[in-house]
């Protein structure tokens, strides 16, 4: 008996989550954290959180802001810390061990959250403060926090009867499991596929792309004569852009689109249908006609119709640009393959050929300028120029030896925070790019899959924008750091816009043309493709009010949405019926209509940058103040506090005009290039 007790004590002592961290600036001891540490830490974190909630509801004192609202906001710190670090590592190294932890932990965490938010005694105290909020001596931020907490509990089922609460808990648990399964399936498909080629099949590929594929093949144990291409974008996109062999491009692109669409254990189609059905049932339980109504009711737009109105305003200029691009590419396709129909796997290849033919643009020619050292140094320079901050490398625990870590210093060299970078592609690492924050210690982590393209440059700037936004929210209560989704992409997109604008000012005409091409392509995607995704989401959640959609109807809806968005700017054969199955933005737990914020944030940031161009350095303090308020009030009120009215079309038209300025400059440079030939 005593031996068992000693063994248990030894295990618990070895768990870093059960100790005070003596690391530099209190950063996580990543070098000591193992997958087996998380479940015990989650369990203890939930137990401590429950005890803190019990302390709030067991007091006989009258409910006040301090003993109820502030106390709730301060609760659950260990659980929050464990969850944040788990999310970092799960995205960075999704080993089978971490995936097993995720599958077990996520439903437990969802159930824990439900138990708290459907706690009648806790809700009763929150409601008591909420009902008296106008009479209490609360600051504007305290009143906002009270209202936000009350609304969160209501939207989480606090007003349901016992049967309703029970069913909502079941739904949330199922949604959590589905979300984990969906993401793990996608990751498996990314890692499982490999296109192994020999040198004689690499026609058109630049030397840098070949060398990267050769190194990848060697790392996979395939030998010196093999070249390996994967579905990770740093490998896939250069192949699609330069590989002359059309059949090989088709093979790689089809494999990417067909992820989780093989009728096996990793197939996501049934998961998607279940996800939609459960979301619809959840909306009905909470008193909403559709899931779209449920989501938008808590956003600035308030209704799906209002979202349509905004998107309808912005997509037309981008569509015109897409039509022009497609026409030029179809012409070149017919020259190479007279009887061929333009297909999805042709887009990147012929876009690159058009750039080279008409504008002497070559992304690969610019790649030497976009080394990681150059890009990071340039972004650090801009951050210092705009915000007055500097970055100093430090020695601290790392979860992967490829990571870098910096101390962030203010103008007076005082400590501001710690910033981790995880740049490179590796097996088990999630695709895309992310920024996560540990507010209690003012720590941020930027994760990318850097390959040295122009797109990677803007991506890094994007994620550093998120990190800066984290910094501006450091002093806020936890709930006030939760930025509304349409604003969550503002700082990131503003940073992108700032970087590209600075690069354009110092670029040669050739470089400027290439940068504008990359920038405008992304703008077209944001304004047009994301519009199609929103149309799809809105129609699906509306249809679910009447019946469960099967795969065929989901495909039809996706094609309809693309037709509505792209019009005749996209050949019907090029539309993608399974976009809903391969975009994780549809299915992230707790994140609703996650496609739309990119359109909103992109244009909002463009509008902010237009103001920065007019006001110069004087706008920096206004901008920082804006970021610090993001979680403190409604979008309309936050923006109004700095003199911006987002409820009228004028601000948005100015943002679109900033894009059109770049379009006109691109045309001007292209005409000059054509005339010079």
CA distance, first residue to last residue = 88 Å
Mind telling me the C-alpha Rg? 26 Å
- Report the CATH superfamily of the largest domain: Oligoendopeptidase f, C-terminal domain
The strand line-up of the biggest sheet is 3-4-5-7-6
> How much of the sequence is in beta strands?
5-15%
Q: Provide the CATH top-level class of the largest domain.
A: Mainly Alpha
The CATH architecture classification of the largest domain is Orthogonal Bundle
The total count of helices amounts to: 27
The backbone outline, from C-alpha atoms, is: globular
Q: In terms of structural class, how would the helical and strand content be classed?
A: mainly alpha
Question: What is the CATH topology of the largest domain?
Answer: Neurolysin, domain 3
Number-wise, the strands total: 7
Spell out the key features of this protein.
about 675 residues; mainly alpha; Neurolysin, domain 3; 3 domains; five-stranded mixed beta sheet; two-stranded antiparallel ribbon; 27 helices; 7 strands
Provide a brief overview of the structure:
This protein is mainly alpha-helical. Helix content is 63%, strand content 5%.
Would you write up a description of this structure?
The protein is 63% helix and 5% strand. It is mostly helical. The protein has three domains: 148 residues, Orthogonal Bundle (Neurolysin, domain 3), CATH 1.10.1370; 65 residues, no CATH class; 275 residues, Orthogonal Bundle (Neurolysin, domain 3), CATH 1.10.1370.20. It has a five-stranded mixed sheet with strand order 3-4-5-7-6, sandwiched between helices. It has a two-stranded antiparallel ribbon with strand order 1-2. Helix 6 runs antiparallel to helix 7, helix 14 crosses helix 15 and helix 21 packs across helix 27. The termini are far apart.
